[in-house]
Amino acid sequence: MKPIFIQCLSLVLFVLCSNIAHATVYRVNNTGADADFTTAQAAHDGVTAGDTLYFESSPTHYGSISITKEIHIIGNGYFLGENVDLQANIAPASIVNLTFQSGSNNTTVQGMTITTVLCGSSATLKDIVVERNYISSGIYLATSQSIENFYILRNYILGTHSTYQSFRTGGNGTKTFVVSNNIFNYFSTNSRLTLDANTTATFKNNILYFYTFTSSFCTYKNNIIHAASTSVNESTNTVSYNTCVSNDCSSNNNNTNNAVWNSLFVGVPTQANYSTDGRFQLSGSSVAAGAGEAGVDCGAFDGEVIYKLSGIPAIPTIYKLVAPSVVSGNFNITISTRSNN
Description:
Elements: H1 4-17, E1 25-28, H2 40-45, E2 52-55, E3 65-67, E4 72-74, E5 94-100, E6 108-110, E7 113-119, E8 125-131, E9 134-135, E10 139-142, E11 147-153, E12 156-157, E13 167-170, E14 175-180, E15 183-184, E16 193-194, E17 199-204, E18 207-214, E19 219-221, E20 224-230, E21 238-240, E22 243-245, E23 256-259, E24 317-322, E25 334-338
Parallel strand pairs: 1-2, 2-4, 3-5, 4-6, 5-7, 6-8, 7-9, 7-10, 8-11, 9-12, 10-13, 11-14, 12-15, 13-16, 14-17, 15-18, 16-18, 17-19, 18-20, 19-21, 20-22, 22-23
Antiparallel strand pairs: 24-25
């Protein structure tokens, strides 16, 4: 007989998810629970275009995935042991390499812990959303074909890999991106923004802390910009309403320059009791407060798609379940849930 906790949790998850997902919903779990799939690639290969895959908490990653059709991937968030009362199980759902191939148009990915986001060398991509994820080794999208309307929203991103960097593009194809409300945090000299000449992107309400910025034909607005080495080229990009550390941008076009990095946020330089992502909320005296266009705050926690702590997905979640381990006859359980947007 399964433990009563697992029975109750599975039932509640089914009820919560049944009315909100795309097409058919499938569970992915590699911890021994009763699920449809145990690896990311098997899950992809075993479903129909338009279906949804719910990846559940696990101490073990689900391998890599190469996406060749529209699917919708939903994890459970990250940094869950630091931002409390978000999920009952604080282990993340992790994928190693997530690679978009031709045919993956309209795919969405949220709430996952991902090592690297990639694409096929001849992939044609359109209307893809990567949102509310923790991406540790960066995003590298290099293709000889086109990428159109690729959305990178509300993620926490490091650049730990010398090739992939924080965000890098390549190949001869034209590429357009919307990059909004992310935290690109500096890790090392590998933490670089390197966009080729065929790439146009709109960066809005991000925290952009890179070693170097390399881009042309891009728009930067309402961001917090910090370059450890080479900053944004204002002669080849449109740069306005940003808060820039030191002289990382000029005061032209309503930018605020000479900001002090260690005075902008509640948990920088000392993290104290703040979470890894929560520390980047603006302090009460931050010069980035109200410095954006129309008086919005610069950074990830204001604007049109506000950053969500832990990348908690936009579905109801269970953050507490109390049930007896052994039951006989009638018994009481307590389920604490919350909605997320």
